Every structure is written in structure tokens, then in C-alpha cells.
Amino acid sequence: MCSPRSIFSEYFPMSSLWMENKPSFGETDLLCPQPRQFPMLLWLLLLLILDKLTLQAPHSVFEGDEVVLRCQARGEAREIHFYRNEYQIQPNFTLKSVSRNDDKYHCSALMRGFWGWKKENSKHLTIQIQELFPPPMLISRPFSPIEGSPVTLKCETWLPPQRSDIQLRFCFFRKDEALGSGWNSSPELKLPTVWSEDAESYWCQAETVTPHIRKRSLRSQLYVQRIPVSDVNLEIQPPEGQLTEGENLLLICSVAKGTGTVTFSWHREGTVRSLGRKTQRSLSAELQILTVKESDAGRYYCAADNIHGPVLSKLVRVTLSIPVSRPVLTVMSPRMKAMVGDVVELHCESQSGSPPILYRFYHENVTLGSSSVPSGRAAFKFSLTVEHSGNYSCEAENSLGVQHSDRVIISVTVPVSHPVVTFSPAGTEAVVGDVLELHCEAQRGSPPILYWFYYKNVTLGSREAPFGGGASFNLTLMAEHSGNFSCGADNGLGVQHSEMVILSIIGPPSNKTFLITVGVTAGLLSILGLAATAALVHHFRTRRNSERPSITGTPSCSPREFQEPSRTSNTNPQEPPDPVQLQPVYDNVNPRDSDLVYSEIWSTQHTKENSANSPRKHREDKEPTVIYSDVKRAYPDDSAGQASIGDSDLEDAAENYENVPCILPALDH
Q1: Distance in angstroms (rounded) separating the CA atoms of residues 51 and 54
Q2: Bridge partners of residue 604, in order along the sequence
Q3: Each residue of 116-147: pLDDT tens digit?
Q4: Residue 82, exposed/middle/buried by CB under 10 A (0-12, 13-18, 19+)?
Q5: Where do the Ig-like domain residues begin and end (predicted)?
Q6: Which residues pair with 404 in a beta bridge?
């Protein structure tokens, strides 16, 4: 009797263990199969035993090579993905530059099975990657160079025979700083000279252009040898050490042997502090003492040191002759700021020098005068003018030479003159709203000049002219700006004032036509008002005489009970009216034997002379000339009526009325 285990054992001897964990086949398929059924059964068994997915890759490659991964499926598969260290590689199947890091690869796909699609994974695969070239090693020749000599650095590595066609390039570093021109195809770098400060750590890098593989060497310390200095010598110029005071002394210190950086120092016998110190990479150095003086005479020596200790030179003597020293020019002036007319005195003095000494005085390199003295100083006096501003100097001369002093600046200050104030636009009249430019300028005066602008002795503002000349002040004109304008100038030497200039302000030009029209209209209305007033007065007088006994109350359109009428027109003809406007003039009219009081109003236009000092106002009256007013009675208990009220009472009651709108035809009733 046959069984599945016997069949697998016959054809697949290593499958016994697998069969123990597999489910049994149906009796119909596996028990004593017929010969025609055996291939199908074998195929099924192969599917169960063999891997459904297999990842294919080269077994051994060099680092940097491109590797193509293939996922082989046994059956229908879809959605194939590749993984490196369990991370999906998307979407490429090609590894362009592999590295030696023992990565593990596998693939996955959806496979069709008996029960549908199922995800399957391949076994993990590790690709053996060989090293393309070993890390380079830095070699220096010579290993321990002498300071100042050349050194050759070599970055040593090699390629396998299978990749001998790959090109390498190299780069050298000192600490973290690249040397030379950077990357180069040559594995060697030559340093022309090395010094003790070049004794640092060096390293190199090597890389392939295609594929890009870069490796670096270990750091290597470079040791530089130094030779101590010897045979130190001091030389002076002039060679004999004979100098004239004021000349320059040159000290040259040199060594016969020594490498690297040498520190040179210069000394004068009897002093602790050195005259100078220089550190440089050379066998000699110079120190120049400018304008030597008598105290610089003595014996000198120098020292040289390149870390191994200072080595001294022999002593050299320096002697001096004394010419005149550089003179000092001082200015004696009666005040801090010199003014025109002041007498100043120039003093020129040289502290040392062989007599006699000739002194010369200069103004802008032009000789003012000279004086010869056996010792001490010389003086020169003169009276200042405007032209004396500038640079002054002096010189001292004896048989050994000439010395010049520093320049001294004398600024002659000129007080400001009386300034002149002008208007722009020019003229003595201006219009309200115009912008007036006040310009103030003093013809003389040292800058800076501060200008002040005044209106009727009230300060409007100030402006500064830092470089001289004049200054301007802009003012937007109003009606009250009519009057006197002036300015002042000051440069610290006193204030000067200008003459006063009178300016008259008139109304804006655009209102002249309107004012004329209003004036004409007001005049016509005044004439008509007078005529209407006369007619009304006659009418009411006639009516009151005829109806007086029957009147017991006030009419419906007449003013209420009133006090005595008063005149509201201007009682002071000498006082100027309101500037430039149509002036209403009031006149109270009281018909006889009646309580009715009305006011007659007319308008007048003032002349140009009366309106020059005030802004213009415009009003267009379209109401009738006659306005009725209800005048309040100053004495309500007075039964005597208005006949008992005097002129003084009329003036007191001038303001005790109020206008009542009334239609003119109502008066006819």
C-alpha cells in the first residue's frame, strides 16, 4: 500500500522533515496514484517545497559598482518591491554605488495561489562587496626636514588589477586647510620651504572620479628642525657713527647662521628698555631712529634669538652734532578770537641749536620778516586785517641746517555789518494767504551768522548761515501781519539790526470783483430801503392817527411790548469799522403814538484804506432792507410810554430788541 510519505521519500529524500509539518493529501490524489496522475502530483509537491520568490544579484562586486537586482517569481506575480535592510528601495532596481556595509536585500510580490493573491517575500541576500582601493597613507620625504628646506608629501594607495582603468585624484591638508590647488591627479605635493610653525598634522584624501569613492589617510605629524643663530653683528649708518642732531640713525642687526623665525632687538647701553623689536624670517633686520637728539648719543648693541636663547653683538658708539631744533611758533593775541585791527605778536623759539640762530616768519609761505638772535626766541608784531587769515609758520637756521615749525592757523573774525531785509515778491503790499519770503543778509561778517526775523519787535523765527551769506524765512500772510518787519544778524561779536520795512496786507485779489458787485448791490438796496422806509413811515403815521383811540393791543405781526428805542449804529466815527466787509447800519424807527418799533438796516462798503489792516469777509444779503424787531421795554412799569425816555436811555436799551420775521404785506393790515 502506497502513501504520500513513501512517494516523497523516493523522489525527495530530504523532504521527510517537511512532510511531518505539512497537511496530508486527500486519499483520492495521493493513495496509490496512477502513472498518468504522477506528473501533476510532482508539480504540486515542487510548488510546496521550492521558494516562490528568489532575489537574484551578483555574488561579488567592487564598492562603487552598479548592481542590478532581479526578483524571480515561480508563478504569476505582481507589485514587486525591493528592500534594503527592511526599507523599500523605490523605484529603481539598480544600486548605482554600493558600499561595504553588509546590507541585506530581499524582494516581495503578490502571488496567485489556490485561494487568491497573497504577498510573498524572498529570502534575504547579502552581497559581498570588495574594496576598490585601500585608505591612503601619507608619507613625507624627508621625514624630519631642516627649517627652510623643501618637503615632498605623497598620498600612497593602489587599485586592483581588475579596476586598473579607474582614475584616482588626491588632495592634501594641513590641519583642516587644503594645500596647493586642491584636487590633483598627482599623488605627490611639494612644499618649497617649511618652517617651525609648519610643524603640524598633515593628512590626505584619495577619490575616484567614476564611481565616486573617497577615502582619507590618518593624520601624520611633521617635525621641523631649527638651527640656532650665531655670529650676531651690529652695523650703523652713517658708517662712522657721526650724526647731526635731527638726522636719522639706521641700526642693522645680522646673524651668520640660524633658521626659522628670528627675533631681533636693539638696545642703548645704560637703558633697560629696548629701542625696538622685530620678529621675521630672515638673517638681518633694520631699526631706524628718526630725528636723533643729543640724548641719543651713546653705545648701542643688538640681540638675536630663534628660541634657543638670545645672542648679543658688540657695542658700537654713536656721537652727535647739534643743529637748531625744530622751532615752535606761538601767537599772542589780546582776545580768544582775533578781530580786525588787533595787534598780534608771533614768537618763534628753538629749544636747542648752535648760535647764532636766524628766525624767519611766514604767512602762507610768504616771508613777513626775520630776526637773528644769539639765543632764546624772536618775535614779530603786526596789525590784523581781513587778509591776514591763514597759515603761519617760522623757521630757525644755523650753520648746521634749517628747521621749520608746524603751521599755526589764525582766523581773523569780522563782526557782522548791519543786515538788509528784503521781501520776495518785492513790494510794500501783499495779499492775505500769500507766502512772503523775508531775506536778511549782512554784507560783512565771519561765518557762521545767525539771523533773526521780527514783526513789530516780535520774533518770528531764526535761520543760520553756516558758510556766510544771507538767510530766508517764509511766512504765510494774514490780515494782522500789516506793519513793520526787520531782522538781526549775529556771529558772536554782537548783534546788528536792519532798518524796518513796512508791509501792507490787502484782501485776496480773487474777491475784488465780488466785493464791487456786493457794494453796488448794497447801494441799490439801500436806496430802495430808504424809499420803502419813507413810505412805511408815512403809512403808519397816517394809520396811527386814524386808529389810535381804538388800539388796545399789539397787532399780530408787530413787535411785542418794548422799551424805549435805541440807535444801534456806530456812535464813534473815529473808530474804524470792521475791516473790509459790508457793514450793516441799524436805525430804529418809532411811529408816533404806537407801540410798534421797527429797525431800518442798510449796508455800506468801506474803502480800500480802511480795510488794509484786516481780512475780508463776504456776505450776500438777499433779505429785505427793512427788518421788524420786537424791542424789549427797559421800564415795563413806566406808563408814560416812550415819550419820557431820554437819549441816554435809548443808548442803554440799544441791545434790548430781537428780530421777528414778518412778511411785509402784513404791515398793510
Answers
A1: 7
A2: 583
A3: 888 889 998 888 888 889 999 999 999 889 88
A4: buried
A5: 228-319, 327-410, 419-503
A6: 395
